[in-house]
Amino acid sequence: MPLKSTSRLWLPISFLVLFGILATAPRSPAQDREKILRAGASVVDITPRTYPVSSNGGMSDRSVGKAHDPLNARGLVLDNGSVRIAIVVVDSCMIPRDIIDAARERASNSTGIPAGNMLVSATHAHSAVTVGGVFQSEPEAAYREFLKERIAHSIVEAASRLEAARVGWAVGNNARQVFNRRWFMRPGYRYVDPFDAGTDRVRMNPPPGSSQLLAPAGPIDPEVPVLSVQSRDGRPLALLANYSLHYVGGVAPGGLSADYFGEFARQIAQRVRAGEADPPFVGIMSNGTSADINNINFFEPGVRRQPFEQIRRVAADVADSAHHAYRRIEYHDWVHLASRQAEIELGVRLPDRNDLERARKILADAGPGPYRERRAIYARETVLLADYPARVPVRLQAIRIGDLGIVSTPCETFVETGIAIKKESPLRPTFVIELANGYNGYLPTVRQHSLGGYETWRARSSYLAVEAEAKVRGTLLRLLHDVAGN
Description:
Layout lengths: L1 H23 L4 H4 L5 E8 L7 E3 L6 E3 L1 E2 L4 E8 L4 E7 L6 H15 L6 E5 L18 H20 L2 E11 L5 E2 L1 E4 L17 E2 L8 E4 L6 E9 L4 E8 L11 E2 L2 H13 L10 E6 L5 E2 L14 H18 L10 E11 L5 H14 L7 H12 L5 E11 L2 E5 L3 E2 L1 H10 L5 E4 L8 E2 L2 H6 L16 H17 L2
Parallel strand pairs: 4-15, 6-7, 14-16, 20-22, 21-23
Antiparallel strand pairs: 1-5, 1-8, 2-3, 5-6, 8-13, 9-17, 10-11, 10-12, 13-14, 18-19, 19-20
Helix pairs in contact: 3-4, 5-6, 7-8, 9-11
């Protein structure tokens, strides 16, 4: 009798224990897919309100008094019911970390999206407003404050437009517009560097079609990966593309421009037949690993173009390639979302006492700037770099959107690094957005450092230690594995 009574009690108790376990267990993938994926996108104008302003992108500062076309911050927010992420691409040459940190904090306070789930990058247009001091351009203080607010607003606005959505991705290809700009020259060629070191073995941007050209010093990455976002009924909401092209240029003197990045956004909207939707479709082109890549075909003599002509040509061609990929996309009503970031410390190639003595003598002989001679320009950079710390923090990030991986660096990253990350990534496809979440100059590989050339010349635009690239690449791959297993 007691045994029978115990048996009767055991059944309901075990059921309750089992029910408790099930109630608190993590949701299965099947349960997660019952959630609704939502998305929102925005375009926020960041064109200066007052002129003149400084425009960087070269070794000499330029004062400009107008904008040929609008500069924008283009935002995308995705929400799968448990995770929200935001990606913003800004028409700027480079954006210092303090601006991005302030914008992320403001947007997080307004939307609840964790700042660590936000990726903010610069396009690297060389015809935008100066917000970071590089070479002889100094930041526009008022515009820096304006930019913080506008970047934050792009995230807030995109989040306010969230609606039921679906996403998909594919990879296009365009080898016609990317060329490695670092070249080995024929024996007997005299390489010149601003430090009189005489150790360079490559030249950046040699004369196109020159008989002294031997071979490019690195590869190209022709991939054009695209992430497409649509409403549940198929209305185009946004398209994020990535291409490893430094910039195009050919902007008329005295004006600002979003370069081919802005023109791509207009061209892709036409190709996906976005129409006059409300809210409007948002096309976004992010910069890939393009530190040693540009739009000059060095194999042949150069062709003169009218201002903005080459920008339109390149944007149209790359938009065609993105659209070919777009037409192959299969969409998902729900996907896993994950974001991870890490902060690592990297060494700085500081000038030594002899470097500083030489630099100060060059500047004393040259007199007050601005300077035209490269020796004086780099001498000034040497003196300014002397105030840098021995190590600097660098923020890296990885994002998962379904089976798509996105990683970012705050550097002008060499194409070899991007190719290596794609090859070893656990997610397919994967692409790299450079100049994101800060600015830490060029990131040559050890091999490229050994070859010398402009991208390795020590300056505020190139100061990280020789071994920095390997540490960055290793950390990004670890972050990709983290989000892939999430």
